[in-house]
Design goal:
Strand order of the largest sheet: 3-2-1-4-5-6-7
Oligomer: single chain
Number of strands: 7
Distance between the termini: 28 Å
Shape: globular
Largest sheet: 7 strands, parallel
Radius of gyration: 18 Å
Number of helices: 8
Helix content: 40-55%
């Protein structure tokens, strides 16, 4: 299926590995030029070179912290004055724990990373998207928005705030062929999920492999998700064919969340 976005320009945040890389790779496979971002310069350059060499697209790598004003400015400058057609917002999630142990500074960090940073990037790109009558914005949030995870309280709260903001804005800009949607990942084979398994194992006095096996057994698919699967979903939301999908929260968790709606 031709997604109709060959030659477009996308910013994909936190894309040197994990879900962000999965999204970047699938966009590159469909001919989209990229501005990739991550904090680790060496890994980012390696990932960017792989996509550049494999798919023949333009890839600009910007090693910076996207959660800072300076970092966001550097990533936007990476577009070299061109209109950003696609924005994939992504940032690392807050650590797990008990809310009784979190201070105000912890909460502010979570809100900054997982709510305010994507809003600031949306603000920077949306008016040019409206002017050209094409724009696709995808926010990688978390399955915890739909199915809260007690030990991920900061993620539950900050990402839910972004979800509420997007719900209103998406319906204001849809008439201009600019869509905003959210992707809600469940358990995918990433460093993030490995660290959560390790934390759970440490707390329970078990091995991380045992925690992972239990998670796989509890999933209706009996496995953890593949990064490529997530990338395919992201690419569709970024495609020319998704203009009627507005303000949606697409949960990709293998069926863990048990609901008829």
């Amino acid at each position: 299926m031709d997604l109709g976005i060959k030659g477009r320009l996308a910013i994909v945040c936190a894309s040197s590995k994990g879900l962000g890389f999965g999204c970047a790779e699938e966009l590159a496979a469909n001919g989209v030029n990229l501005v990739m971002n991550a904090r680790s310069e060496e890994l980012l350059k390696s990932s960017a070179a792989h996509l550049r060499d494999t798919y023949g697209v333009e890839v600009t790598a910007v090693a910076t912290d996207i959660t800072t004003p300076e970092g966001r400015a550097a990533v936007l400058d990476g577009a070299a004055g061109r209109t950003v057609d696609i924005l994939v917002n992504n940032a690392g999630g807050p650590p797990p724990g008990d809310f009784r142990d979190w201070e105000r500074e912890d909460w502010m960090g979570a809100v900054n990373s997982n709510m305010l940073t994507p809003i600031e990037l949306i603000k920077a790109v949306i008016d040019p998207m409206i002017d050209q009558r094409f724009g696709r914005i995808v926010n990688i949030t978390s399955g915890s928005v739909r199915n809260p995870i007690p030990q991920l309280g900061m993620s539950n709260g900050a990402r839910a705030g972004l979800t509420g903001f997007v719900a209103g804005l998406a319906r204001q800009v849809a008439q201009h062929n600019v869509t905003i949607n959210n992707l809600l990942p469940g358990q995918f084979d990433t460093d993030r999920i490995s660290s959560l398994f390790e934390a759970a194992a440490s707390k329970a006095g078990k091995e991380a492999a045992e925690i992972r096996a239990a998670a796989e057994a509890a999933n209706p698919c009996h496995r953890i998700g593949h990064i490529k699967e997530f990338g395919h979903a992201c690419a569709y939301l970024c495609s020319a064919h998704s203009g009627y999908m507005v303000g949606q929260n697409l949960l990709i968790d293998g069926g863990v969340f048990n609901s008829s709606f």
